[in-house]
Specification:
Largest sheet of chain A: 7 strands, mixed
Order of helices and strands of chain A: EEEHEEEHEHHHEHEEEE
CATH topology of chain A: Rossmann fold
CATH class of chain A: Alpha Beta
Strand order of the largest sheet of chain A: 7-8-9-3-10-11-12
Strand content of chain A: 25-35%
Number of strands of chain A: 12
Number of domains of chain A: 1
CATH superfamily of chain A: P-loop containing nucleotide triphosphate hydrolases
Structural class of chain B: alpha+beta
Number of helices of chain B: 12
Distance between the termini of chain A: 20 Å
Helix content of chain B: 40-55%
Largest interface: A-B, 28 and 23 residues
Number of helices of chain A: 6
Largest sheet of chain B: 10 strands, mixed
Shape of chain A: globular
Oligomer: heterodimer
């Protein structure tokens, strides 16, 4: 099965648990969380600080491995408990895209190079990488700033470049951790709508951790985390459904 | 895409300052090697330039450079009589420090065996060799004496008729060539009062002996010039330089000299070895150890610089790891920067050295093998210095991006 096959879910996570410390200092940051996101679907992950949202996001992003559980991305089993079944860095490179509260652009690279580098580390030839980087910046409306260093870009422009970088390698899953926190409401909404557009047009699953209640209508589904549990799910019509992580 | 050069371009000022610092440090390392080579060149310069085949010196001494040697000047004639000898010249050498134009002037006085040796073999920058038996000198330009300058040494005044370049003694002091008799006059010049007192003392000694009482002529002689007294030896020379006839075996001729119990003979190579193993050896070891220290210091400083540069990029390195960059991309970023700092620092050191070293008070000789070995050392330093930064970068987790 190929990770980029559109008929299979972007991600399936089963019974993910993350425990920090041990004994008296043990903290369960994420407890038995299961989740399934289809390709082209945009889901929001809500919850108070410390609820475990970022823990879940970094776990499915293969950055901060869970203590227990299983993760399948694009049909490929990548993690069983805390044991990696694939080369995680190589898998991230090919199949995952990340966006954070701060754009985290590399300051010594121009906008286009920040996108290009994501492809070059994935063995895409420099010329082809540059061409796609320009296409992505154009798609995201920042092609005119391609030659600028991050310092010369506004917060919104930087975030768009970060989105372009996340899309560069045609990921099956895009993970965004409070991507609009540093933006004003108008630009925040623009970015959220951009995720929706990207998910639908590029066929990637998108998980967005957010506190921004004003843009919830953008999402296909909304999950809420509390005390490490994925407790509830809000349907687009506003009704709270029974916890069903494998809804699709 | 070369991340190292992109980062350097972004932080050009800091990188340039770092490179200048490393460059200056490497220039010192390079200069130390050059000073060592210069010591050897200065120490052996005279022996090499004079071109004698054998050096006859006082018995059981290692003169005339490594220690004092005194020989009667008549040894010249004895040496000429040895089979295989083409010529023999007296060698007079001593260092004096006098006051000239209100500043101290250290001169290595060299005596030429006039009239056979007029200094025609001395490479001149300006002027001419000696053309008269007295009161002329050929001086090295490091002495700061221009052509035509007159300098008073003892009771006599000498005119600078020729200038040389790079003719210095083993101590780095400039050479001045005189006729041997002038060189001896400079060496044994004494005030008139000293001469008068010495003559009076001689007369008193003779008067006190029965020979003086029965021979009044002796009293008269003893109170006169020393040259008129047969029992008083004339001034002695430092060595006798022997030139062999073409095709003669130096070892064979030296073996003949070796049978004379009052002298010791050295070939030019042995004389050079004496200079290097004795006079220069401690300086060589001192400079060598200092050089090792400088290399270690350079490595530590470079390592700290590369480490600091890496720390500044730690968030970017975490981001690179997050997007899946392989370790070799990150190692390349750090290593290439370290190598660039090393290479540019080396180039800068060489460039600055070409301006600075000729202005040093003592000779600095930069030779190609030394440059190549230093390039190798700089390469090693750069690699070692980058290890600390690479180690730090390898420890960074991708989730550092979130902090």
């Amino acid at each position: 099965m190929k990770p980029n096959d559109s008929s299979i879910p972007a991600i399936e996570a089963f019974n993910l648990t993350k425990v920090y410390g041990s004994g008296n200092t043990e903290v369960v940051a994420m407890n038995d969380v299961s989740l399934r996101v289809a390709r082209g679907e945009v889901v929001a992950l809500l919850g108070p600080s410390g609820a475990g949202k970022s823990t879940l996001l970094t776990a499915v992003g293969l950055i901060n491995l869970p203590t227990a559980g299983r993760i399948v991305i694009g049909g490929v089993s990548v993690l069983e408990a805390d044991h990696a079944l694939v080369d995680l860095r190589a898998f991230r490179r090919k199949h995952l895209g990340f966006i954070f509260q701060k754009a985290n652009l590399i300051p010594f690279l121009k906008a286009v190079e920040n996108v290009q580098i994501a492809m070059e580390v994935n063995d895409v030839a420099p010329r082809a990488a540059r061409q796609r980087a320009m296409e992505l910046l154009d798609y995201l409306g920042v092609a005119d700033r391609a030659g600028n260093l991050p310092d010369a870009l506004s917060g919104g422009q930087q975030q768009r470049v970060a989105v372009a970088r996340a899309l560069a390698n045609h990921p099956s899953l895009i993970l965004a951790d409070e991507p609009t926190a540093a933006l004003d409401s108008q630009r925040g909404r623009q970015v959220m709508e951009l995720f929706r557009k990207v998910a639908h047009e590029q066929g990637a699953g998108v998980i967005v951790v957010t506190h921004d209640q004003r843009s919830l209508d953008v999402f296909d589904r909304t999950f809420e985390m509390e005390d490490g549990h994925l407790k509830s799910r809000q349907e687009p019509d506003g009704s709270i459904a029974k916890d069903s992580p494998h809804h699709n | 895409m070369n991340l190292a050069t992109k980062d350097i371009r972004h932080n050009l000022g800091r990188f340039a300052l770092t490179t200048v610092g490393i460059g200056l440090l490497l220039m010192i390392v390079m200069g130390m090697g050059g000073i060592y080579r210069g010591l050897i060149a200065e120490a052996t310069l005279l022996v090499d330039q004079i071109g004698a085949d054998l050096w006859v010196v006082q018995g059981s001494t290692r003169g005339p450079f490594a220690e004092i040697s005194r020989l009667p000047a008549s040894l010249e004639d004895r040496a000429r009589a040895v089979p295989g000898v083409a010529s023999a010249r007296r060698f007079v050498s001593h260092t004096i420090q006098r006051e000239h134009s209100g500043r101290p002037l250290r001169i290595v006085v060299q005596g030429l065996a006039w009239p056979d040796d007029r200094g025609d073999w001395i490479p001149l920058l300006a002027g001419r060799p000696l053309r008269q038996a007295h009161y002329e000198t050929i001086a090295d330009r490091t002495l700061g004496l221009p052509l035509g300058e007159k300098i008073k040494l003892g009771k006599d005044v000498y005119e600078v008729v020729g200038l040389t370049k790079g003719m210095v003694g083993s101590g780095g002091d400039g050479l001045a060539f005189f006729t041997a008799s002038d060189a001896l006059a400079v060496q044994f010049d004494t005030p008139g009062e000293t001469t008068r007192l010495e003559r009076a003392a001689r007369r008193a000694r003779v008067e006190a002996q029965d020979l003086g009482q029965v021979q009044p002529l002796l009293l008269e002689r003893s109170a006169g010039p020393a040259s008129g007294i047969p029992a008083v030896a004339p001034p002695q020379v430092s060595a006798v330089m022997v030139t062999l006839q073409p095709g003669e075996d130096a070892v064979k001729v030296a073996a003949t000299f070796s049978t004379w119990p009052d002298i010791t003979v050295y070939t030019t190579q042995q004389q050079t070895d004496l200079l290097l193993s004795g006079m220069v050896d401690k300086s060589r070891r001192q400079i060598g150890l200092f050089r090792v220290l400088l290399v270690i210091i350079s490595t530590i400083i470079m390592a700290l610089i590369v480490y600091t540069l890496t720390l500044d990029k730690i968030h970017d390195i975490a981001m690179l790891k997050l997007i899946g960059a392989r370790n070799r991309v990150i190692v390349g970023l750090i290593l290439q920067q370290a190598l660039l700092i090393g290479a540019l620092g080396y180039g800068l050191a060489y460039w600055l050295g070409t301006f600075a070293f000729p202005r040093f008070p003592r000779l600095v000789v930069i030779e190609t093998p030394d440059l190549l070995s230093l390039a190798g050392i700089v390469l090693g330093i750069s690699v070692v210095a980058s290890l600390l930064g690479i180690w730090k970068a390898m420890l960074v987790e991708p989730n550092k991006v979130l902090s």
